[in-house]
Amino acid sequence: MGLNWRGHPGRPWLLIATGLAIVGAASAVLLLRNPGTQRIASSWPRIVKAGTTCGLIDRTGHFVVNPQYDAINPPFRSGLYPMSRNGRWGVIDASGREVVAPGFEFAAISPGPMATADVQLLKEGRIGIADEGGVRIQPAFAMPLMFSADGVAVAVRARGTARPRGPDDIESASLIDRTGRVLASSPNWLTGVPAGAGLYIMVERGPDVRQLRSRLVNQAGQPVVDRSFEQLLPFDEQGLALFRDNGKWGFINTRGEVAIPARFDEVDRGGRISFTPFDDSGMAAAAFGGRWGYIDRSGNWVIQPQFATASKFGSQGLAVVGAGGDNGSGLIDRQGHYVLNPQFARIGTVSLGGLIPVARRQGPQLQDPLIWGFANLAGEVVVEPRFHGFALPHDGSGLVAVDTGQLRFQSFSESYDESGGIERYWSATDAHWGFIDARGNTVIAPAYQNAEGFDETGLAAVQSNSLWGFIDRTGQLVIRPQFQAMECNGREPH
Questions:
Q1: DSSP for 347-412?
Q2: Cβ of 407: how many Cβ atoms within 10 Å?
Q3: What is the pTM of this model?
């Protein structure tokens, strides 16, 4: 199989054909990744499983959409919920209004910074689009459609009825508007993505799959500049885009001119599904000669290459860097000074309450499990690592859910914020979750099998006796435990 709709490559022709630029957009932005790996921006109404069916509840625990569906997938900012009933997929809104009647093999909304409110619909191996008005474009295309802010998407048609397995199975790619009208088309195009600024990255055929190139075009399909690129990523808000040629990375502007020559071994993209290497201060992590440092928007070094690894600066002006080795992660400020000396195996995202998750191995081996503690913005370790799991709050309260249980066997999962920082981590333990404050003091006793962090409204989902409910910041039950699960995700059929 080729690249499936969850973004997991089978035969990697698309990876080779498009490089990280297009695959990053196609597999991480367009396609449905595991919904549990990225936090949903809007918490309510919440998807719950009651018995064997799924519905939506409000903050009082009352159903706004009665449990009647086999699965409900997350809305990811859209207000639309793909749902399944009797094995067929459709779409409802937050009130339960049926926007698209069940009749499709699968439906999903794509997470990510470039995603729109469109629902991707799958039927007989082809993909179409629905929005709040219903089905807008009938399934006819071989890959998901991602519309730009200008209302233009790249549409790929395949030869025959099967899903494409390689470039020879692609008939053509086109630029279409939201009615499906073709604006530009070329049999030489294989695929593409919106690049921002009214421009598009199109992957062109070559003599073989290893020689495919990316070209920047406008809505009419005309090249912006008379050259192509080995790889090309979408533009950031300031109009710079990463490109790669001859194995090195640089930046172009929206006129296709080289703004920073391709001389870097690698440039951090700013997150797991991001195309914004530069932070708010205009610094980006880049590698040269096998070491990482930080450049400005002119390509000049602000912090000389000296780290084994480096990541984008966050809103607090701190960045995770690695000095090498398993316990070599630390935090630096924008002057390159260590705020937290390199001593940890992992460092998570900074919470709204100012706590920073930090982890060490429980033993000397790389395969030993992680135990988590917390540091503050001054670089002080305020809670020594001792927890097998945590979940950060999103309400600024500073109350962090922690798992005080004992490890049963080596298994873990983690979820991320949009910048790629770890915001929740949980292991296979005997599960005693509670909540601590920024000094490590227990605020809510560890009495739960599982817990999420407090959401923007000050409620946290907790599991007791295998059922989920909600508590407030004082630990009082607001919604009694009664739900089998706090998610009801469905998967694309193979």
A1: E-PPPTTS-EEEEEESSSSTTSPEEEEEE-TTS-EEEEEEESEEE--SSS---EEEE-PPEEEEEE
A2: 17
A3: 0.86
